[in-house]
Amino acid sequence: MRILYYDCFAGISGDMNLGAMIDLGVDAVYLETELQKLNIQGFHLNVTKDSRRGISGTKVQVIVENPDNEKHRHLRHVEEIINNSSLSDTVKTNALKIFKLIAEAEAKVHNIDIQKVHFHEVGALDSIADIVGAAICLDALKVQKVLSSPIQLGGGMVKCAHGIMPVPAPATALIVEHVPVKLGLVQHEATTPTGAAILVAMVDEFTEEFNFRITKTAYGIGHRDVSEVPNILRLFLSDTETSTSDVIEETAIILECNIDDMNPERYDFILEQLFKAGAADAWMEPVIMKKSRPANKLNVMCTAGKAAALKAIIFTHSTTIGLREYPVKKSMLARIEKIVETKFGKVSVKQSIYNGKLIRSKPEFDDCRAIAIRENINLEEVENEVLKNL
């Protein structure tokens, strides 16, 4: 299993994340080439080696070539840019998830509709590059699990577009609700809204426990250098070799509640929100309650780090006034992922192994769907072509 761990002891920003990803092994030329698929002009990456307090790493600057002429964008403009690009569906989905987190926070801070949020910061070219770049890099690493330490937010005051604000800035404070954070290590903004949104959107679990073997360490260098604490983001990569005869076991959390007084039309909405917030699985079961009343049981499986955020969604978007929570052990078949070359292009395939034998191969649905739409053919034809070329 490939695990990526964010060690955010000094916080995180979008450019620190890009620097750490490149330092970890993502090719800078590949990243720039993928960013060009956005079909927007006016920026490029400046990638250099740098150090903070004797620790060397990679520093990335998004150079906006004509900042005075840069457009201010709303969420719909950013969504159009990403959706109209030729980036993979996975990259599009993750980038839009990060943008939406920031937009929702800004909308709540200013008490306006999400589509009326003026992206004076997030809509800027450098933030678009940071966020879409984060999605590109994570996809390139092909990790199965993303972990993070508690997020160091910093302290003091920060200058925003609307004036001087306490750290964390209002939008950052909303984004990191329900995830572990720390305050006060430094007297400046250690974590930006972009950095916070990248973590909240992409991390499967926030934990300080190390129970994996580190195979590579990388450092992303920040632009600030005014503190004894090095302004860096550290990443750990773990490539754990799994015996093909073994079944992978993990601990998960189950949240469940019985619902008998809610409009069934809302079930799809709450399930959608749970998956967006990081649920590993979510489903409804028909049950019979007291006095023979028919009802439905909402079940959610997640990591311990996601439980608080998912509980908040259940209490906010369902009619339940209580829920049950308990740990379970998951047993999963060992998996390998490979890229298959077909006449339609490259497709990712997940293969399941049991007792040393390949028992199942499943083409990535998003890859097949994109090809089916592009070639105007049915999904079965695409899947058959992929399996034929295994």
List how many beta strands DSSP finds: 17
What's the helical proportion of residues? Answer: 25-40%
The value of Rg in angstroms is 22 Å
Shape: globular
pLDDT averaged residue by residue: 90
User: Within the largest sheet, what's the order of strands?
Assistant: 13-14-12-15-16-17
Which percent band covers the strand fraction?
25-35%
**Main sheet: strands, sense, barrel:** 6 strands, antiparallel
Task: Give the N-terminus to C-terminus distance in angstroms.
Answer: 21 Å
Write up this protein.
This protein has 390 residues and is of the alpha+beta class. It has 3 domains: 2-239, no CATH class; 247-331, 2-Layer Sandwich (Alpha-Beta Plaits), CATH 3.30.70; 335-388, no CATH class. Helix content is 32%, strand content 32%. A 6-stranded antiparallel β-sheet has the order 13-14-12-15-16-17, with helices on both faces. The longest helix is centred in the first third of the chain and has 22 residues, at 89-110. The chain is globular, with a radius of gyration of 22 Å. The two termini are 21 Å apart. The mean pLDDT is 90.
Concise summary:
The protein is α+β, with helices and mostly antiparallel strands. The protein is built from eleven helices and 17 strands.
Which helices and strands appear, and what pairs or packs with what?
Blueprint: E1 2-7, H1 14-24, H2 28-35, E2 43-52, E3 55-64, H3 75-83, H4 89-110, H5 125-141, E4 145-148, E5 151-152, E6 157-160, E7 163-166, H6 170-175, E8 181-182, H7 193-202, E9 205-206, E10 216-221, E11 232-239, E12 247-259, H8 267-276, E13 281-288, E14 294-302, H9 307-317, E15 324-342, E16 345-354, E17 357-363, H10 365-375, H11 379-388
Parallel strand pairs: 1-4, 4-9, 5-8
Antiparallel strand pairs: 1-11, 2-3, 6-7, 10-11, 12-14, 12-15, 13-14, 15-16, 16-17
